[in-house]
Amino acid sequence: MLDLPAARDRAASLVELARKKGADAADAVYVGDRSQGVSVRLGQLEDVHRSEGEEIGFRVFIGKRNATVASSDLSKEAMQTLVERALAMAAEAPEDQYAGLAPEELLFRGVPADLDLDDGGDPDPAELRQRALAAEDAARAIEGVTNSGGAGASASASTLAIANSNGFAAATRATGYSNSVSVVAGTGSTMQRDYAWHSARHLADLEAAEEIGDRAARRAVSRLNPVSIKAGVMPVLFDPRVATTLLGHFVGAISGSAIARQTSFLLDALETQVFAEGITIHDDPFRKRGLRSRAFDGEGLPVRAMNLVDDGVLTSWLADSASARQLGIQPTGHAIRGVSGSPGAGPANLTIAAGQRSREDMIAGIKKGVLITELIGQGVNGVTGDYSRGAAGYLITDGEIGPAIAEITVASNLKQIFATLEPANDLRLRRGIDSPTLLVPEMTVASA
């Protein structure tokens, strides 16, 4: 894995080579990574792995034609072949009037912000093993847990460099750590499974293994002996670990490509009231140690913190350069990409702001409803917004959380869900997309 200057120069030199060989424009993405992990089950080591690799992706333009190729061989000879192959492919490709590099006048200039994404660590496998064992031991110590699905701990480091023929070249580096455990509670036909995990950029920020194990076990035990529920329209609480999926559907609906293809249920929603007044959905690429923090986007454009929803009003699409050209707007600095294919668009660290009421107050006000902690299957129509998903969780009766429920479906339309949902005040910043508990006042709930 190259250091930052070498990674930047490697991407830039490939772009320069393409220009010398006749490309009208070009861009390149270098990714170098190192990862290692340990998995255990029932106190025994199951697997240890470590990998290191480099890959470079490359896109060339000849007029309005373009092609993308990628290689894990970074030798000088391989790069020569890569450029020649890309140019030959581009010459045969169909014209695309919207494809192209990001506008030169908009490119990020200057020194990338220090987002503190790299702690420089490379833990010993023995340390990872101990962390995995500690998580599983803590889970198996909880009464009612009868088996383990295993536990794991991992560490990684990656370098990303992007360069293009409009004069942009920059590189960043990040580390990552994770710990997870899955356990089974109960016996025979009554068994239930659940899990817990946490990821962080810095090892110091990773949640204690014992806390992760304890949470997984208590979740599994609490799901024992589920009861049936009578179908009806009722309030639905989405636990934070599944509430983020609603934000995922929102992101898909406001992506520039979906809008340009006219395949989004929010097609005509820009600058209109999509959520209730007071709702804010914030995108922050500059969060220190954030899992999706970035100093520039996947096309070399500047990024900025912004409210995608402000007081309930949708303020922006998420547009890379190609979709922005289709829509007749400026790219929004949300381009994301890997080494293969053209850029797409997506948020950085996305959150729906905390509300005023506590989760406990919300529960206390529900006569009959459900708390959802797991969602199953897809069941979402991105064109119409129709929503129907399998789920599991807990029954709420007379303001109190009751027994577990399983094999139910919750259904509505995402437009209605967005317009009526209320966030609780229990927001925690733990992932790339974060949400507090969300209350949807009315959804159809039925047995699956």
Automatic annotation (TrEMBL):
Residues 232-446 form the Metalloprotease TldD/E C-terminal domain. It comes from the Bacteria. Residues 26-90 form the Metalloprotease TldD/E N-terminal domain. Residues 120-224 form the Metalloprotease TldD/E central domain. Belongs to the peptidase U62 family. This is TldD/PmbA family protein. It comes from Sphingomonas caseinilyticus.
